[in-house]
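Form P-L/3: holo structure prediction, ligand L-homoserine.
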Amino acid sequence: MGKSINNNGKYHKKLVIGLFGFGVVGEGLYKALQQTSSLNATIKKVCIKHPGKKRNAPEELFTTDKNELLDDEEINVIVEVINESEPAFDIVSTALQNGKHVVSASKKMIAEHLPAILDLQKKTGKSFLCEAAACASIPVIRNLEEYYDNDLLHSLKAIVNGSTNFILTKMFEEDLDFKEALLLAQQLGFAESDPSLDVEGWDAVNKWTILLAHAYGNIVHPNDIVFNGIQNIQLSDAVVAKEKHYDIKLVAQAKKLLNGKVAAFVLPQFVKHDEPLSFVKNEYNGVVIESNFADKQFFYGKGAGSFPTASAVLSDISALRYNYRYEYKKLYHHDVPEISDDVYIKTYISFDDWAFIPKEKFEWIEEWHADAERKYLIGVLPFSELINNTWWKENNTSLILAPEPIIEDVEIRRIKKKSLELAGI
Ligand code: HSE
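OUTPUT (holo model):
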């Protein structure tokens, strides 16, 4: 990289950026960089898909030819903030192979291509940074990567999608209907261009796989994680939540189990009012990390939107000045725990007809309300039931986890033994 001397006589690497994408995040970055002259970074060219659009930047900055950026030797950093996953991967891999550092915010692309990106980072020796790809403004990737040792990290519980959190807040606290709330999230630039990625939980699970890699070293494809979005949640669920003094949130979770494995999933969940995640409203995200000695810590910040996302991209660009790269310490220097399928989960399920619910699959059912048109139960299911079957998200069935949903195998055996003893068996 080129170097220049600043007023204090200190060397700073000069960063010459090729930017892919000038949407919500790209334009945010462009404006943010203009206000951050200390960074010694300039955008040389911006590659866009649709040249006809009116943009708030000089026309000569733009091109539709990706090679103008990828083959330009002066450009030493490619920032990629486009929408489509496959073209994004093509840009990222060519850029790394051409000897450029890369900063990306494309969570879907990263989640789907993480093994290849790791190989490319190793092979080329270049940095691939993606703080903006999970929880936008919250520096959670770098914290997981640098601060938390695998053994100390008990659990992570997080709200990682701003749009769904925004919609739930607007629906249940401000009485907007779903469509109005989604439209607002789109207008404010929080939602994906295909908002079903937000609403059905895809965006959250993509982010969760990225965070799992940095938290525990698991390289897992999003298709292999149990997840759902908020599309099945009903107003009647919100009424039950209110009665029980809970909020409903889309929560991503990972927990180290007594058997050394990790339970991980992204599902709607009841959250108690005194839990930190209950405090996370609108487009904000939050991450609760529990570790052996520090106990609980709570990270909170804006999880979507132009400047909050651009701020994380900016911070990655800044980190490139001192050649920062993720070492994936948990993956390369620790034993990576297996993702577990042998836990049990306590859950609320509401449904239209008992015929849709395989009652025999439950370990036990603690509560059921069958008289109203919309029925519900609270019970304990083997987690494998969610992995192997889909009845729990079909036929208008709504599954919302209990506040402390994970029950370990040993605990189930202890509870069963106790109930047999009490029954005198
Ligand atoms: N659609 C995403 C969200 C944008 O709502 O969280 C930020 O990644």
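COMMENT: The pocket of L-homoserine is lined by residues 136, 161-163, 190-192, 198, 203, 303-304 (CB under 6 Å).
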